[in-house]
């Protein structure tokens, strides 16, 4: 962009450019950009810094001091750039009265006290931490009264620290803890609406999956990734199981409307038992691989699911549904939307059955992306036709017979 054209851009456009920069330090590299920054910095509310070496840190503090209204701050600290805790803390201190959303990517072997960084942030509502981190996460011993979202991603957190987050964040609405390290723990919180807990897979299979008791009266959305659970959540609306859940003990899941299941090494009976727990679901995604594939008994599997209108099939479980299709059961499901993640075997029997027996079906999406996972081609449809000509022709034939069928490769 020429200097004159950049100088003539309206302030709103320039502020948008500043907010979208992956590394805000690039503002200082061009004179016209720097001049506009100096005149508009007080209006900037979002900045993103990417630090790859120690010298990169020099520009951060001056830019933060000039920007008086920062609400969203993201800092990526890459391996080889060991920023001391004191320096990182001093940056956050500059924006403590305005910062609402803080996101950190930190790759380091040095321990860092997360709570020391944010203890003075009076308006902080979202805290997200990513990276290969040696965060020192002690018990939170003071209240973060404004914090609504807390994401602790890709770090190993012991359960006492997680419990302290629930206890000292009264406004907490969403909690995500990945690589959760614990044996048995009880988590309670009356306010949190969304919880995502993922197992620490680095611990090795010999330790077994963590087992928690989760009790929360207002929980609406729960994701359990490799964690067994005793669950008391009468208001739960969404249950997501991205990997095998060996044990799920519940008081009631009658209010659950959305169920998703993914991953591998499931046993068929585990899947069936979980579906039985949620009789009132309107949407289900069963995209799993089972260790013991067998034909699905349609009448038993879908018994009582009178509200189900959206379904997704995938994984080798798809074959189980294709073996003994019951058209009468399909018709009673009253499906409106269906998605099938197509595998190598095609499973066209199910596609045809959905189109024939579900007159209320408005759209049937056939997702073929898994057949081209290793491709970087732009024209995926041509590639699909070249690699799988028979499957391509069969799909096109079905599509010609019904406008409800949509083929996607994304």
TrEMBL record:
Residues 6-43 form the F-box domain. Pfam families: F-box-like. It comes from the Eukaryota. This is F-box domain-containing protein. CDD domains: F-box_SF (cd09917). InterPro entries: F-box-like_dom_sf, F-box_dom, FBL13/AtMIF1-like, LRR_dom_sf. SUPFAM superfamilies: F-box domain, RNI-like. Transmembrane segments: none annotated. It comes from Selaginella moellendorffii. PANTHER family: F-BOX/RNI SUPERFAMILY PROTEIN-RELATED (PTHR31900), FBD DOMAIN-CONTAINING PROTEIN (PTHR31900:SF27).
